[in-house]
Amino acid sequence: MCYSLKRDNARFSSMDSSCQLTTLPTGKFVGHNFRYNLHLNNVSFRPIKLLTYASVLIGILLLIAGICTQFQGKNYFTEFSYPLDIDILPEIQNLKNGLEPSVSPITVFNYSYLKAAESVCSGVKPTVLFVIKSARPHMLRRNVIRQTWGSESRFPDVVIRTVFLIGTQLGNNSLDEVLNKEDAAYKDLVQADFIDSYSNNTLKTMMGFKWAVQYCSHAQFIAFSDDDMYISPLNILRFIDSPDLYPDNSLSNSSIQPDLNLYAGYVFANSAPMRLPWLKWYISWDEYKYNMWPPYITAGAYIVSRRTLLDLYYASLFTQFLRFDDVFLGLVAQKAHIGLRHSSEFYFWKKKYTALGYKNVIASHGYSDPQELFSIWEEQKKLGHA
Known about the structure:
By secondary structure, this protein is an alpha/beta fold.
């Protein structure tokens, strides 16, 4: 093997006795990039291309390795057992009856409320309570929701209440004064002392459950949502009136059953955990050892009845914590023998908007622009769809 590398007048070469030195001009300016050519046995290679090919090859190998791990672990359908491995129903009943459980809880949400919105449900029994996951900087989103689908005065004969869930931000207190003014004006912020981050979504969600149990336990139905959703309160009322018939039912409030065991939204029945470490939804085998998730309802928007709220919250105390809030609730529901009710009118993606196409939409993701949400909701309200 022989090669030579030449840059301007500098020349570096290495040869064995059987090869003849071959050189080509290698110092070339292409734009502002200086490029070298490396010659092995008279074949030209570019190191940058070699690195690119190597990176692509490594990426493919990592992808294959990650995909292969999808087939590892325990079989969900034949081997599933999730802590605590006990009959959880007696413990739920003990707590609902104000009794001490016979088994100590393993997941306790011990945080302090910084803002508790204690007066939101005082003296009323809401038909629908909106519990909305928000974030400290999202004041505009909250304001538009208060004016649109979260409005407590939307219907003269239906009691609606709304609260927003937020956490704290490490080392950033610049919004505290603004949040204090917002809370003084609306008294609908529920804030606890945990860091507001994606990995703490389960904490935020269960804060909402805990708050509803403590401060609004008379609400007939609780609609959980993110603050980037379009929601139709009218369609929620239509849905809870006859979940099995929606959207072909007509609204008749007299048939709404608050003691119905209802947990409804968009159900994922057969999905697998993500085992590729660079993905947002990656989870290790140590955190979850099965090859499939249990059925669960996507976290963007879902509805529970009062009975189900209590069952899910109390059952969560005896279920091992998982950082994905929707999957965690799926695990809790399975342990508490709560069925999931699927509705295709809950969209975890942004459904393409047309005036008629949103007639039966209960919820649609993708409305992080407050102005877009306001204009679409106003149009749907005028059409009698919201």
